[in-house]
From TrEMBL, chains A, B:
It is found in: Cytoplasm. The keyword Cytoplasm applies. SUPFAM superfamilies: Class II aaRS ABD-related, Class II aaRS and biotin synthetases. This is Proline--tRNA ligase. It catalyses: tRNA(Pro) + L-proline + ATP = L-prolyl-tRNA(Pro) + AMP + diphosphate. Belongs to the class-II aminoacyl-tRNA synthetase family. ProS type 2 subfamily. It comes from Sphingomonas parva. InterPro entries: aa-tRNA-synt_IIb, aa-tRNA-synth_II, aa-tRNA-synth_II/BPL/LPL, Anticodon-bd, Anticodon-bd_dom_sf, Pro-tRNA-ligase_IIa, Pro-tRNA-synth_IIa_bac-type, Pro-tRNA_synthetase. One of its GO terms (biological process) is prolyl-tRNA aminoacylation.
Length: 434, 434
């Protein structure tokens, strides 16, 4: 993409209303714009990152055997009356009347709807087990939206729902999602700590939250230092034994920790850090199958109510969490897996024919090699271009200047490590073409 | 995908409330389920088709130089007050109050928001021309939702907005989108007729609707027979001359046609067919830049209000239009470009070891070759499997039965042409691996 034809409104000023670094950087780097309190438009660069996060979440859901569908954002209040949650849910639920005065709502979650959809066609044990998921915009009318997309009102969420014949099946589905979550966060370059969680308004008996460790997290997490020793490779290869190991180690969100009379972790091994909750999984049994009228025929001919779980990931919130975990004074440092472009080309002198020809050639060659590239072809000062590149955090910067070109070299900078290296154009291309 | 692990609730019964064939087939083939009046959940097979349509729409927008972003579904009423449309828009707009009693709405379109976003950063002629688009869920509270996704309330739309310095620039942007639309519909396997349209509530001075010819269209289209002679190849290679040719030929929606005193087309060349409106483009000039306060500095230093256009495609409606245009008594006949899977494998005897081994092998080989395949591995009768395959309309069916296998062959059926052919497993694989 040529920057001269793109839409990347970066700003030098730090927005006054942004308190945390991810919010500041998302506004400054032109990733999002607020359009109403807690509601954001995703500008081109931000949308690319959002789609990359979404893709990784999707791949891991598919890998776990979950099947994707898409439920609408607007739901009927009648569905929620069936489960009893229409009255139980607080003012976070955005409720309205349609033109025929029917009570509707903007879905904050989908247990009722997915159970109703599944109940319409599931007949027997042969239709189970099944895990269905979607990635859809949700709305929670936060009293005080803040921290940018971290606690916005309209947000993108992946929510999955599992249906099993019995508790044992539910446990297997729960573990499959647990593994998917460990892999997802590891692929996003994040260190996630699963903590045993209270189940809250969804109800149920087994639940874990996944917290990303970052100084600006909304709540503290207390955990056994051994959790920090689990490697990324171990998480990417996670299986039931990884879960057993992780859940065997102490980890609690602060409110729960406060209730623990005798913490089993010796003081010198007890760590506490702030955490950003990015995932939440629940095994809640038959709560919704009972209330929404879902039953299937078991092998012995009897009717049974499937055991269910639900599994959420805050897709849009993850973007904020990634930035909280990966930035420096210059701006964002994207992990390669979610970077909006892999390479940024800086043409130092758009008014110089040699620089422009070399930059154009590099751009075309990288495009041809399938390397996502943002080409700063604007007629601007080099200093401003460097600042923009650092701010938007692409993994690699390729700098084309007249002095280097005269010696037959360009400069390659690694954004994360800050290392710079002079290379011939051919070597630079070879290095960047995966 | 193995059907035994998928979620494909097909039904034999024709749903009582569905009037038109696409609505019936979308329900029967398990593409969608209605969750409230005019609101649908997209089941896995339907979602795959929707994503394929979306991908083609996106590719042609990108090809035309438009830049993708994503605006939220919920908008502030204040934005719409600025343009004067908050009061002008009818009861189709879904309005509500948030918990702080602020007036909000579910966006039916985005002229106001995109103009406000663009105005925040556009400063000079160097920031123009620019066309921005998004593909997002919209809501129009139809008084009487009907025809399934064709006239639903929550629907997926691609809407693009162009910003140009002057009328000439707007004309160029309008033509670029016109070309993108011709290519998009041709790639979707559809015959689209562009008709000169009244501009309606968006306002403006130049507008075309794109109608897909199908017997169940909501309005009639009158056009010159010469339009039918324009080939798919011509449309795929469309440029300004194609537009000149097309717009030089008479084509009017019935209400407009009725106003024409002397139709220039001789009676023997005047055709009339029902049309489904799937696209609508407008050049409306400075209406929104003026009302939303967008101006930029021109080359001569003066401030000018950009000339704008907006360009919509009904992405979810297109699925209905494609089915209306491409089905037979057995079910849907997907064009290859949007088919949810390219190949369906029918294992005629899941209880027969040879059949299952051969089917498993074909499935794995096709997966490895990157061919999207739905494998009916269920323990069901062959007849039911054939009916399902015809109903869901995958382009190719590969039938593995015990008699054929004994002779070393499988049967390959082309869904559109109904042709069947016996082939060795190797030849079938070679044929299907693109």
């Amino acid at each position: 993409m040529r920057l001269s034809r793109y839409f990347l409104p970066v700003t030098k000023e730090t927005p006054a209303d942004a308190q945390i670094v991810s919010h500041k950087l998302m506004l400054r780097a032109g990733l999002v714009r607020q359009t109403a309190a807690g509601i954001y438009a995703w500008l081109p660069l931000g949308l690319k990152v959002l789609r990359n996060i979404e893709r990784i979440v999707r791949e891991e859901q598919d890998r776990a055997g979950a099947v994707e569908l898409l439920m609408p954002t607007v739901q009927s209040a009648d569905l929620w009356r069936q489960s009893g949650r229409y009255d139980a849910y607080g003012p976070e639920m955005l409720r309205f009347l349609d033109r025929h005065e029917r009570e509707m709502l903007y879905g904050p979650t989908n247990e009722e709807m997915i159970t109703a959809i599944f109940a319409e066609s599931a007949r027997s044990y042969r239709d189970l087990p099944r895990t269905l998921y979607h990635i859809q915009w949700k709305f929670r009318d936060e009293r005080r939206p803040r921290f940018g997309v971290m606690r916005g009102r309209e947000f993108l969420m992946k929510d999955a729902y599992s249906f099993d014949l019995d508790e044992e099946g539910l446990k297997a589905s729960y573990e499959a999602m647990f593994v998917a979550y460990l892999r997802t966060f590891a692929r996003l370059g994040l260190q996630a700590v699963p903590v045993r969680a209270p189940t809250g308004p969804i109800g149920g008996n087994l639940s874990h939250e996944f917290h990303i460790l970052a100084d600006t997290g909304e709540s503290a997490v207390f955990y056994d230092a051994a959790i920090e020793e689990i490697t990324r490779e171990e998480l990417l290869a996670a299986d039931a034994s990884t879960i057993a190991k992780l859940t065997g180690l102490y980890a609690m969100e602060e409110e729960e920790h406060a209730k623990v009379a005798d913490c089993p972790v010796p003081a010198d091994r007890l760590r506490t850090r702030r955490g950003i909750e990015v995932g939440h999984i629940f095994a809640f049994g038959t709560k919704y199958s009972a209330s929404m009228g879902l039953s299937v025929q078991a092998k012995d001919g009897s009717q049974v109510q499937p055991h269910m779980g639900s599994y959420g990931i805050g897709v849009s919130r993850l973007m904020g969490a990634i930035i909280e975990a990966s930035h420096d004074e210059g701006g964002i440092v994207w992990p390669e897996s979610v970077a909006p472009f892999r390479v940024g080309i800086v043409n130092m002198r758009a008014d110089d024919q040699a620089c422009t020809e070399a930059s154009d050639g590099l751009y075309q060659a990288l495009q041809a090699a399938g390397v996502e590239t943002l080409y700063d072809d604007r007629d601007e000062r080099g200093g401003a271009k460097f600042a923009t590149m650092d701010l938007i955090g692409l993994p690699w910067q390729l700098v084309v200047g007249p002095k280097g070109l005269a010696r037959g070299v360009v400069e390659l900078k690694n954004r994360a490590r800050g290392e710079r290296e002079e290379l011939s154009i051919e070597s630079a291309l070879a290095r960047l073409s995966r």
